[in-house]
Structures are given as C-alpha cells and as structure tokens.
From TrEMBL:
<comment type="similarity">
    <text>Belongs to the transferase hexapeptide repeat family.</text>
</comment>
<dbReference type="GO" id="GO:0005829">
    <property type="term" value="C:cytosol"/>
</dbReference>
<keyword id="KW-0808">Transferase</keyword>
<dbReference type="InterPro" id="IPR018357">
    <property type="entry name" value="Hexapep_transf_CS"/>
</dbReference>
<protein>
    <submittedName>
        <fullName>Putative colanic acid biosynthesis acetyltransferase WcaF</fullName>
    </submittedName>
</protein>
<dbReference type="InterPro" id="IPR051159">
    <property type="entry name" value="Hexapeptide_acetyltransf"/>
</dbReference>
<dbReference type="InterPro" id="IPR011004">
    <property type="entry name" value="Trimer_LpxA-like_sf"/>
</dbReference>
<keyword id="KW-0677">Repeat</keyword>
<dbReference type="GO" id="GO:0008374">
    <property type="term" value="F:O-acyltransferase activity"/>
</dbReference>
Length: 183
C-alpha cells in the first residue's frame, strides 16, 4: 500500500533576518576569504568569522575553501583547524576543541528533517568535538554527536552516535576499531 505525503505545506522555520545574515555571510566569505590560498590570511579569516558571531581562539585555523553555514554557531578552541573543503553545516552549534583537526572534505551536519511528521520539519542538534580529536578526510558527523577527547574518526567514516574518548572508529556506520594509545 503506497502512502501519499503532501510536502507542499512545508515551511522553512528560519527567520528572514537569519536568511539575510546567511546571504550576506556567503557574499563576504566568497569575496574576501575564498580567493586566499589555503591557510594564508588566518587572522583575516578569523576577523571575518568573528564579525558574523563566531567565537574563535587566536590560534584557530579555517582554510579558505571551508564552508561555514552560520558563523554565530561556531566555536573553535586553541590550535583547532577546519581544513580544505570542510563543510560545516552548523544550523545548530558546532564546537571544535583544542588541538583538534577536521580534515579535508569532512562534513559536519547539525540538521535534518523529522521524517515521522508529514511536514518534514527541520530538526537540529549540536556537534561537540572534544580536545585532541581528529576527524579524518571525507568523514561525516551527524547531528547530536559528541566526539570524545582524543578520538579519531577514520577517513570516509559516517558517525551517527557519540564516539568514546581515545578510541578509533571507522566505516559506515562507524564502528569501534581500537583504542587510541599515544606512545
């Protein structure tokens, strides 16, 4: 039996003000940060992000090709990094701990839709990445996930549940691989 769902009544819950800030932010980042090579001009990029509400340590690095959806929902601690091509879809808070790297092409996604509601309303939850963690290349981290201190998310892993401190996870969905031991 096929069920019909009418999505014509879906309404975006984001305010006009929010949408205008997002549009202005996209223009500012595209013109004043994107043309800079990789990690050049870090102070300038931090200035632009702070101008739009981000809370960044003076040693945080955001590469020019990283995409930040809404800077006011971004916190980055000391020596944290969003590398080339990171997509930070931070409709809700994304907090990156100290000495933490989010590698090339990783996707941090704080929003989805409630598929059990016929209007598919937007649902959000923060992503918290604790100190000394590493999210490797092309990994996906879903809404509501906390990545524990020192944890490693392997390349191309898809994480939908919290990751325990000092563990290595990988795969789709991500599963425990081993404890992380630093010699």
């Amino acid at each position: 039996m096929e069920q019909q769902i009418d999505l014509s009544k879906y309404r975006n819950v984001l305010t006009r003000k929010h949408q205008m800030i997002r549009m202005l932010w996209s223009v500012v980042w595209t013109i004043f940060a994107r043309p800079l090579p990789r990690s050049i001009g870090s102070g300038w990029k931090r200035f632009l992000l702070r101008l739009f509400g981000a809370k960044l340590a003076s040693t945080a690095i955001v590469y020019s090709s990283a995409k930040i959806y809404y800077p006011a929902n971004l916190i980055m601690d000391e020596y944290s990094c969003l590398a080339s091509g990171v997509d930070c879809y931070n409709v809700a808070l994304v907090k990156i701990g100290a000495n933490t790297t989010v590698s090339q092409g990783a996707y941090l996604c704080t929003a989805s839709h409630d598929i059990s509601d016929s209007l598919n309303p937007l649902v959000t939850a923060p992503i918290i990445v604790k100190d000394q963690a590493w999210i490797a290349t092309d990994a996906f981290v879903g809404m509501g996930v906390t990545v524990g201190q020192g944890a490693v998310i392997g390349a191309r892993a898809c994480v939908f549940k919290d990751v325990e401190p000092w563990t290595v996870v990988g795969g789709n969905p991500a599963k425990f691989i081993k404890k992380r031991v630093i010699s």
